[in-house]
Amino acid sequence: MHRWTALLAAVGVLALVGCSQEPVDPAAIDRWSVSSAAAVEHDDDVLAVLSAEVGAGKTEELERGSVATSFAAPAEIASLEFSCFGDGTMATEVEIESHGSTVTYGAEPMQCGGRPQRLRVPAKWRHEVDRVGFGGRDSTADSAWQLTVRGSGGAAD
Fold first, then answer.
1. How do the pLDDT tens digits run along the chain, 157 residues long?
2. Could you tell me how far CA 112 lies from the centroid of its own chain?
3. In the chain, what are the domain boundaries?
4. Which three-class secondary structure state does DSSP give residue 64?
5. 21: number of CA atoms within 13 Å, CB side?
6. C-alpha span between 77 and 63 (Å, rounded)
7. Which has the closest alpha carbon to 45: 150, 156, 128?
8. CA geometry: angle at 113 spanning 34 and 109, to 5°?
């Protein structure tokens, strides 16, 4: 009986080791971040680019948006484009402020490593935007994210 218990325990440990994630190279995250920012830096419709790193299983503090930008004059938001590093998934939380009111909404986990994905912006909250905040959460791997805010109007403060 003890042999079976020891054998099952050994198989369980091997199964856990087989499921553990490979460590992520911080230099690879840095290269992705620089490359992602450079890909949009000359686009005329980019109002702001927000970005941050997030650890696996971590949730950023979402007090008034983890990372945010305020506009010097009200902006019209055409789209929000999200991308993240690696082959994991990450959920997001967007915060938009307009006329002194704020809306906060999230998105289910999205796959990282592909092309930027457009995030839904409620029609009511596209106009005369004063501030955009964003945070990544529930990342399945050490990663980084980037949010590109596209539109017209107010230059970022």
1. 443 333 333 333 333 344 446 678 889 999 999 999 999 999 999 999 999 998 888 765 544 447 999 999 999 999 999 999 999 999 999 999 998 899 999 888 999 998 999 998 999 999 999 999 999 888 999 999 999 999 998 765 5
2. 9
3. 24-153
4. coil
5. 14
6. 22
7. 150
8. 115
Side-chain-side CA neighbours of residue 30 (13 Å): 3
In the numeric block, the tokens 């890909």 are attached to 39
Name the residue type at position 5.
T
Length of the chain: 157
Task: Give me the sign of the Cα torsion angle 63, 68, 73, 76.
Answer: negative
pTM: 0.80
Q: Which CATH class is domain 24-153?
A: mainly beta
